[in-house]
TrEMBL record:
Family the UniProt entry places it in: Belongs to the class I-like SAM-binding methyltransferase superfamily. Erg6/SMT family.
PROSITE patterns: SAM_MT_ERG6_SMT
Keywords: Lipid biosynthesis, Lipid metabolism, Methyltransferase, S-adenosyl-L-methionine, Steroid biosynthesis, Steroid metabolism, Sterol biosynthesis, Sterol metabolism, Transferase
Name listed for the protein in its UniProt record: Methyltransferase
Gene3D superfamilies (alphabetical): Vaccinia Virus protein VP39
Cellular component terms per the entry's GO annotation: endoplasmic reticulum
Pathway listed: Steroid biosynthesis; sterol biosynthesis; Alkaloid biosynthesis; vindoline biosynthesis
Domain SAM-dependent methyltransferase Erg6/SMT-type, residue spans: 54-341
C-alpha cells in the first residue's frame, strides 16, 4: 500500500533533506528556474542537484496525490485514472514483447509503481534505476509489501553514467524520466550501451509539440511553469527527441504522440473544471484542502518550513500542464519504440 495519509505527507516532505534545510532547498530550487530568473545552462550543468532537490521536496506530495506511479496516461471514457495508469504500463510491456524471466531496466523508476506492475504483468525481473535516494528507500519498502523484492531491485545512479556492463538487459523502458536529462543523445547512448543487441527500448517522453512557438510569450510562460513545477532543465520538441534516439544508434520501430487519440485528455485529473471522487485529491477542491492542510501542518511544526512553497510550485506545475495540454503545445504522451540493431552494419 502507498503512504497516503496527511501525516505521511508531512513526515516525508523534504525526503533526505534535513527538515531544517527544507526552506533553503526550496529557495535554491526555485532560483534555478526562469520564473525566478534562472538560466537553462545553469539547470543543465547542475542537473543532479536540481532534479534531486525537486524529488526530495515533492515525492511525498506525489504519493499523496497520485499513488505509486508518477505518470499520466491516455484514458478511455468510463475508465478511472488508476485503471488508465495501469493500462498504460501494460501497453509498454506489450510493446516491448516482454517474456517471463527476462531482465528489464526501468530508467528513472520513481518509487517503483510501474516497475512492480510491469514485473507482475510480465513475470520479468525489473531493476529500477534512480538517482534519488529517498525514492529508492520508499521503493524498497513498497517492493517488500508487494512481494517482488526477491526478483526486482533498485540501483542508485545517474542515467547519464550507468553502472552496468555493455549489453546487460533484454529490454529497457523509461516513463516520463529521461526528459530530466541535460543531454538526450548522451542519455539514450547509455541506454543503447547497456541494452542487448536486437532488443528494444520504449519510452513515454514529455515534449513540446510543433504547435509550440518559442517567440510566443504565453507559450514561453507555460513552458517555464512546467519546467519549474516538474524539475526539468529544458523541454525538447518531439522531433528533437526522435532525432536524439536515432543519433544514439537506435532504429525507430514506431513513434506517436498518444495524446492525439486519447478519448479523454491526459491532463484531465489536474483540470480545475473536472471533478472526480476516485482521484479527489487532484481536483480543485482536493488541492484546496491539501493547501490548507499543509498550511496547518507547517504552522504546528509537523511539516517543515517551506512545505507551503512546495505546494505552491506544484500548483503552478498543474496550471502549466493543463494550459500546455489544452493549447496542444505540450504532451506528456510522446511514445517511441526503438531497437538496437544486431551489429553496427545492420
Ligand atoms: C516523473 S518521475 C517518473 C517516475 C516513474 N517512471 C514513474 O512513472 O512512476 C522521474 C524519475 O526520474 C528520476 N531521474 C531524474 N533524473 C535522473 C537521473 N539523472 N538519473 C536517474 N534517475 C533520474 C527521478 O528521480 C524520478 O524518479
Amino acid at each position: 500500500m502507498s503512504k497516503a495519509g496527511a501525516l505521511d505527507l508531512a513526515s516525508g516532505l523534504g525526503g533526505k533533506i534535513d527538515k531544517s534545510d527544507v526552506l533553503s532547498a526550496v529557495d535554491k530550487y526555485e532560483k534555478y528556474h526562469v520564473c525566478y530568473g534562472g538560466e537553462e545552462e545553469e539547470r543543465k550543468s547542475n542537473y543532479t542537484d536540481m532534479v534531486n532537490k525537486y524529488y526530495d521536496l515533492v515525492t511525498s506530495f506525489y504519493e499523496y496525490g497520485w499513488g505509486e506511479s508518477f505518470h499520466f496516461a491516455p484514458r478511455w471514457k468510463g475508465e478511472s485514472l488508476k485503471e488508465s495508469i495501469k493500462r498504460h504500463e501494460h501497453f509498454l510491456a506489450l510493446q516491448l514483447g516482454l517474456k517471463p524471466g527476462q531482465k528489464v531496466l526501468d530508467v528513472g523508476c520513481g518509487i517503483g509503481g510501474p516497475l512492480r506492475e510491469i514485473a507482475r504483468f510480465s513475470s520479468t525481473s525489473v531493476t529500477g534505476l534512480n538517482n534519488n535516494e529517498y525514492q529508492i528507500t520508499r521503493g524498497k519498502a513498497l517492493n517488500r509489501v508487494a512481494g517482488v523484492d526477491k526478483t526486482c531491485g533498485f540501483v542508485k545512479a545517474d542515467f547519464m553514467k550507468m553502472p552496468f556492463p555493455d549489453n546487460s538487459f533484454d529490454a529497457i523502458y523509461a516513463i516520463e524520466a529521461t526528459c530530466h536529462a541535460p543531454d538526450a543523445v548522451g542519455c539514450y547512448k547509455e541506454i543503447y550501451r547497456v541494452l542487448k543487441p536486437g532488443q528494444c527500448f520504449a519510452a513515454y517522453e514529455w515534449c513540446m509539440t510543433d504547435v509550440f512557438d518559442p517567440n510566443n510569450q504565453e507559450h514561453k510562460k507555460i513552458k517555464a511553469e512546467i519546467e519549474l513545477g516538474n524539475g526539468l532543465p529544458d523541454i525538447r520538441l518531439t522531433h528533437q527527441c526522435l532525432e536524439a534516439v536515432k543519433k544514439a544508434g537506435f532504429e525507430v520501430v514506431w513513434e506517436k504522440d498518444l495524446a492525439v487519440d486519447s478519448p479523454l485528455p491526459w491532463y484531465l485529473p489536474l483540470d480545475k473544471s473536472h471533478f472526480s471522487l476516485s482521484s479527489f485529491r487532484l481536483t480543485a477542491i482536493g488541492r484546496f484542502i491539501t493547501k490548507n492542510m499543509v498550511l496547518g501542518l507547517e504552522k504546528v511544526g509537523l511539516a517543515p518550513q517551506g512545505s507551503q512553497r512546495v505546494q505552491a510550485f506544484l500548483e503552478k506545475a498543474a496550471e502549466g500542464l493543463v494550459a500546455g495540454g489544452q493549447k496542444e503545445i505540450f504532451t506528456a504522451m510522446y511514445f517511441f519504440l526503438a531497437r538496437k540493431p544486431h551489429s553496427d552494419s545492420e
